[in-house]
Amino acid sequence: MKLNLIAFAVPLFIGLIALEYVLARRKKLSYFHMPDTVANLSIGIAERLLDVFVTVLFFSIYDHLQKNYGLFRIRSSAPLWILLLLCTDFLWYWYHRLAHEISLFWAVHVVHHQSEDFNYSVSARITVFQAFVRTGFWAVLPLLGFPATMITSMLLVHGLYPFFIHTRLIGKLGVLEYIFVTPSHHRVHHASNERYLDKNYGDVFIIWDKIFGTFQAEDGKEEITYGLTTQLKSYSFLWQHFHFLIELWISARGQKGIRNKWKVFFGRPGEIDPAARERAEKAFNIFRIDRPVEKPLNRYVKWQISLILAGLFVFILLEKNIPALQQLLISCMILVTLVNCGAIMEQKTWIVYLEFSRLVLVLLSLLLLYPAVWLALSLAVVVSLIYYYFRALQLQYLKLVYAYSTAY
Question: Which pLDDT belongs to residue 357?
Answer without folding.
Answer: 85
